[in-house]
Amino acid sequence: LWVPIMVGSGFEKIGTIIESLMASFLGKGAVAALYYSNLVALLAFSVLGLSFNRSVIPYLTEQSAQRNFPEFRKTVATGMRLNLLLLLPAAFFFMVLAEPLIRLFFQRDRFDAEATMRTAITLRAYAVGLVAMGWFNLLSRSFYALLDTKTPLFISMMALVVNVILNFTLWQTPLRQAGLALANSVAFWLSSLVLLLLLHRRLSKEGSPFLWRALIAEIRPVLAVAAVFGLTVAFGWPMAQTFLHGSSIFMQALRIAVVAAVACAGFLCVGRLLGIEEIGRITRKLRGLATGRA
């Protein structure tokens, strides 16, 4: 079971090496823009998506061992919904505030304003595939829980081929290194959707196929609260720039923190109104902590 997982991980690294190699032909700063934007995107994915997916694995493994496929299907569907709930707001955040974030994190000395703009565009391209990265990781682990490590391997091979083809298509367009990042995002979306269809077919054989209408119904409120988060960031950032002046690192961080805090508050309030269970738990926990302090 271990060998296909090892080989599949190797394919992912090969894709990263190819992207860096191709970026090296795009002139000064392209490799750095690709590297630093990928670093920020992977930070969000690791903290929000990867950590959650790891916590789901024991449940999937237990349900698979007990052949409790209705609960297995439910756990996967819940995991997909929560990946969307966690990673889609992060993607919107990166798309709107890519430039201020990169300026805050990296713009020093030789990393000038031009490098910031180039890296920010690339980060937006990676943000397009942030949710797909979470889904791909979750669905791969779902197959692992079913003791099927070959299917994710074949899909990783397919993703690598698609990624390379798109790399050669996009790298010399005006997108430049952002085209390489966009190719990565498209490959993740394609591979995650193929994995989802294959898992649906596998569970159908066990009498527990995905209930697509129910899944879509669960996803709708998540899309709504993520949209509220993104719109709050988009409209809040100009206001933060108006009222919080200054170019120091502290003021840059303060503006981003204020916008993020307001967007998170709106995210929680709308999520509670729409009846999203996990957000309701969070708000009740926060209210309990506040009451305890009082």
Order of helices and strands: HHHHHHHHHH
Radius of gyration, in angstroms, nearest whole number:
21 Å
- How far is the first residue's CA from the last residue's CA? 53 Å
The DSSP helix count reads 10
Q: Give the proportion of residues in helices.
A: over 70%
Shape verdict:
flat
User: Mean pLDDT score, rounded?
Assistant: 88
Strand segment count: 0
By secondary-structure content and strand pairing, the structural class works out as: mainly alpha
pLDDT under 50 segments (min length 5)? none
What is the oligomer described by this structure? Answer: single chain
Percentage beta strand: under 5%
Q: Biggest β-sheet, characterized?
A: none
